[in-house]
Structure prediction request, 213 residues.
Amino acid sequence: MSDGEDSSGSAGPREVPTAHDFEAMYVAGRPPWDIGRPQPAFRELADRGLLVGRVLDVGCGTGEHALMAAALGLDVTGVDASGTAIAIARRKATERALGVRFLVWDALKLPSLDESFDTVVDCGLFHVFDDHDRPKFVEALRASTPVGATYYMLCFSDLEPGDWGPRRVRQDEIRVSFSEGWRVEEIAPAWIETTIEPGSVRAWLASILRIRP
Prediction:
């Protein structure tokens, strides 16, 4: 993928990867974000006891965060558009004797699950949506969470230099996206670890509470 820049130097339109693109990455091998363990930012959430109730790992990839939550005894579902990633996640669950439901699913069609989740974790999904699909995703989350649910989102930060990789996200973009029916509790600087140099990238960890139907 490549970035454009407008004359002011801010990020311009970016090609949005499709489900086929992600499937191809998993078929070809391990994508850079698939580090084989939970991201430290989410590991800390788990250690603090912040993952509660029914948990949804949206855009779960090969399932490390879903499996982490299941190891805590939680009821967990992981969804991803890549069938290859889901097959790997299911194999991991079997190998680790953990009961996680992994589904090949479009995150924009979460309402079709007709289920409700108390905690949603998202590592690197929000930042792949363009301006057209972001509201659809937020609405899908709204339809899948009760009042009092929390959405934890880890995304590329606009503080990360360069123009490689996914779209950078500003704090104000997050706040605008979740301005109706949600309360942004915190947006904290974080890191996303990767399998390629430099090994980690600047990120935001957002904690967002559902406050109204």
In short: The first helix runs from residue 19 to 28. The chain is about 25% helix and 25% strand.
